[in-house]
Specification:
By secondary structure, this protein is an alpha/beta fold. The protein is built from nine helices and 16 strands. The chain is elongated and about 65 Å long. The N terminus is likely disordered.
Amino acid sequence: MSQSRILLEVGTNELEIVEFYIDEPDGYRGYYGINVSKVIEISRSQPVTAMPQMRHPSVLGAFPFRGGRIVPLIDVSKFLDKGGITSKDPRVIVTEFNKAQMAFLVSGVTRIHRISWKQVEAPSPFLLKMSRGSITAVVRLEGHMLFLLDVEAIVAAMDPSLSVRMDEERKTPPPARKYHIIHADDSANIRRLVFDELEKEGRFDISQATDGEEAWKMLQQCKAEAEEKGVPVTDIVQGVISDIEMPNLDGLTLCRYIKEDPVLKVIPVAMFSSLISEPLARKCQSVGADAQFAKPDLQAISDKMYALIQTSQAKNQG
């Protein structure tokens, strides 16, 4: 195990990103990044077979990968309305997240950066609009800017079945009471989907944060309010759902902060991320997370969070 992965395991607010670039027709070279944890392989371009069911113009086709699994190939340049990859020697970045494998065609790959989440900034509203919501963050590096791709948003545009969703067929009975939870995620698309679906379900009142730092400030305010009123903090906020990849303060570090705080540690924390795997689940456990679920299964984390809060409430009352 590399040193960076050991650091991430204990929640030190660091990440590694693969930097790649896209050459545009006007000669401009744009630099982008994907979290290393989502990357399986980087290779040269290869022939693809057409996929009639994938009609988005940026889907070039698919190719067999490791044992014959069929992986769609997305031209990132086309998706971003940059004209398409024209490099003579492009690269393919094969990724895995949300329990699915996708490949991205790019002009070239430069290097891997190891940085702190403190160096990662939220994109401006203008950039979000120009990128159609596919840029999740910005990193200022020496000599250029790097844009972190919201690959989950790109894949959801390709295949809506892979986006965050609830079980449409299930009828949830009206809850005995609603619980207040804080949800932290840097993706505006994910925040909207989670808020809409959970509010519709009727179990939770939701406050949302754009990153771990904002969520931590919210929790500090809840703690101060509880102290002022002379009540347990769980009377003010009953649970936290957090993404892992976030600017300023990542989800693992946020969870560690909560579980190391003598007052806040009683609040159940569930990690909800496209990155959840067996190794990462162990990292979540190492920082004290009460549960962890992979996107897009929002129903599972809703059920688990509701159960965790009920158990916590019963324990505190007992």
